[in-house]
Design a protein that fits this description.
This protein is α+β, with helices and mostly antiparallel strands. The chain has helices at residues 2-15, 29-45, 59-67, 124-133, 148-156, and strands at 19-23, 71-76, 79-88, 110-117, 138-143, 160-166, 172-179. It has a seven-stranded mixed sheet. The longest helix has 17 residues, at 29-45. The radius of gyration is 17 Å and the shape is globular.
């Protein structure tokens, strides 16, 4: 019986498709936009009706992320399954935090924005975070109050809720941080 369990586990491990992160290039823009639309649809289906309204994030923002080297794709078997922006801090919208405080205000940090994935893929946020924490040990992220999926992911990945920040347009976001010591 142990041998059978061992063989099943090994077969499962061997058949698992490895995921990797790559920097997006301009020719990836259509894939990034397709994934952003998938993210928007997932939000709407989960009751998050107000985040990423209209055409946010605009194509020009996604193009700038790519040009600055901040746009990434999570790949699985040669297919783009998720996108995210990974940006060195400081982030201007994180200067003021209300009803709380950051875990650390002095150390360098990076920010994750614009996370979107194919709805059929699971464990995407863990793979994104594994990559990001391999680069820096202090990450901040924010999300809309109605984004229960992201809030659950952040809590399950060990992020601490820190308070409320406001975007440049005044919209409220819940702010989180995790530091690997």
């Amino acid at each position: 019986m142990r041998l059978l369990l061992y063989l099943c586990r090994r077969l499962s491990e061997m058949s698992a498709i490895e995921r990797e992160v790559k920097k997006a290039v301009l020719s990836d823009l259509p894939q990034v936009m397709r994934l952003i639309e998938c993210g928007r649809q997932t939000m709407r289906l989960s009751g998050n009706l107000h985040q990423w309204e209209g055409n946010y994030p605009p194509q020009e923002q996604l193009r700038q992320d790519i040009a600055r080297g901040h746009s990434y794709l999570l790949m699985e078997g040669g297919e783009s399954i998720a996108t995210f922006a990974f940006i060195p801090g400081p982030d201007i919208t994180y200067r003021r935090i209300k009803q709380g405080r950051w875990l650390d205000e002095t150390r360098a940090y990076a920010v994750i924005h614009r996370v979107a994935a194919l709805p059929s893929r699971h464990g995407v946020m863990k793979d994104i975070l594994r990559y990001c924490f391999s680069i820096i040990d202090n990450i901040r992220i924010d999300t809309h109050r109605d984004n229960t999926i992201m809030r659950h992911c952040l809590a399950s990945c060990g992020f601490s809720y820190c308070g409320i920040i406001h975007l440049l347009n005044g919209d409220e976001r819940l702010a989180y941080q995790k530091i690997i010591r």
